[in-house]
Amino acid sequence: IALNLEEIPYDIKPVNLVKSSGEQHSNEFREINPMEKVPALHIDNHTLIESVTVEKLLSSSAGKYCVGDEITLADCCLVPQIYNARKFHVDLTPFSTILRIGRHLEHHPAFPATHPNNQPDCPPEAIK
User: Fold this and answer.
1) The pTM of the whole model exceeds 0.70
2) CATH code for 1-118?
């Protein structure tokens, strides 16, 4: 998604994790990632083989919001998902970029005004 939003050209090389006990264990994939794990992101003659490394690269080059420094529909969709994740006690700590963006959006007047707890029909017991 991020590559598409930034209009960065890329080639998809699917890795079937089920077929033949997992294609990530093939010799071909082992040349890309000796740890035999996905994802593997190849950028500028470098291959990033850990999700955390990929996330750090993307977060260090990311803007204030989902797609740069301007609020987009992606941000409008993200905020309710963060709310629902918290409502159902999903641990978001592994998703530092999502949390960072959420913190920025919480301070924009459009988002707190539409928070479910701020709606006229919100039951008092739902407000935490």
Assistant:
1) no
2) 1.20.1050.10
